[in-house]
Amino acid sequence: MNYPPVFVTAFASAEVKSRLGSSPCRVYMFGMAPQNVAKPYAVWQVVGGSPENRMDRVPDTDNFQIQIDVYGDSANDTRLSAESLRDAFEPVSHVVAWRGEDRDAETQLYRSSFDVSWFVKR
Known about the structure:
Blueprint: H1 6-11, H2 14-20, E1 27-29, E2 41-51, E3 61-72, H3 75-89, E4 94-103, E5 110-121
Parallel strand pairs: 1-2
Antiparallel strand pairs: 2-3, 3-5, 4-5
Helix pairs in contact: 2-3
């Protein structure tokens, strides 16, 4: 399956790199962020989607629903990092949900979350 180019798109943005680093760029697939990673950082995961079915042929495009979660030590850094990712993704995908913000009681990290719908050619 072809997955959306989340990391490549994020890394192409100077604003994302200024907020989430460039060596490494702290955008990780879910479960892959290293222990004690520098903050802020982002994780992404596929939460849904479907093929673009056709009556006359097999699908040539898949639609992925991607959840983006940004974590940081301050609400401001977390929000600004989420905004930079939103700005990087909007030219090639559609923001479809704002999932809210919270602060984890155990880690004390702030979180900002949103979903994007991303069409990917097979």
